[in-house]
Amino acid sequence: MIHDLAITNGLAILENGGKHIDIAVDNGVITQLGRQFNARKVIDATGLIVSPGMVDAHVHLTGIGGGLRDNFEGYQTGTSAGAKGGVTTLIEMPMNQLPATINGRTLLQKYNAGQNNLKVDVASLGGIVPGNLNGEIQEMNCQGVCGYFIATCGHRCMKADFTNSDDHTLLEAMKQVKKTGKVLTIHAENEAITQMLAERSEASGQLSMADFVASRPVFAEVEEIRRVLSMAKETGCRISITHVSSIEGVDEITKAKADGIDVTCEVCVHYLYFSKEEADRIGPLLKCAPPIREKRQQTGLWQRLRDGKIDYVASDHSTCPPRLKAVKNVFQAWGALPDSKITLISCLMRPFRNGK
Ligand SMILES: [Zn+2]
User: Fold this and answer.
1) Can you give the residue ranges of the Dihydroorotase catalytic domain (predicted)?
2) What is the mean pLDDT of residues 283-288?
């Protein structure tokens, strides 16, 4: 038989691990694994990894900059970075671009900006903020969002960007999203606690990465996760907790799953790859929220990923001009990392780096 395509000599990522094996493809579908296929086209993947296309479920692109972020990464660069890293589909968050994606009009603006500029498939989450519970969720549903996003806390470095929600907005959003059958993705950290600690830290001149981490303690994450889970139980809304950074947070979600709550959770590659000790040394480049935590957390997250308690790994890819990271006060630094290109390879390589 002559196949359409053979990918030869690569290290193929299969269900049970990596194997040097050739792959035959016909009509766009893998039809055989083996050796020495006859094919009309051959791709020699010597020295390369051949993996399934990754779905990166957490990406911030700035395809529209609103005059303020026009020189940020746009769709061309952002989706190219994903493709370079083995991502074939990415899910775009509704914040970082200006305006934020919170209704049908802003969603269409984003679709238009992406026209002819995408290197991979892109799906969009609709943003929910206080004040857009009057038909906007349904409007965005009709226009094809794949799910929704809401944040319980804000970013001090991104003022007036995407408003975090109060408990009432969160509860009402869950009731409305449930009717769409889609998933509500939630950034869960306690706003009052994190803001108060950050204000105190800044006011007293404690401006390092360690101070930033201290302003977003595990307790503030776990407390909010518990509250969000209780609302999901009350409403029956399907939820996903994004970028869980602590083992205590994952364990709360594991308990909730056993209790019948329809919840999944995500970890991001930077929590798996770095520890707080490294972040202290590297500085604001590694600032993100929730923050990168201690070594024991990093080890525990890997363990829970292997155990299947963490449902998926994503990048939380978000870029900014270098000047927004080159600040002395870490609280004012841009709070995210450009990870999409390296998520897959980091996950594959870190265990080797650790000798596992
Ligand atoms: Zn994010």
Assistant:
1) 49-248
2) 88
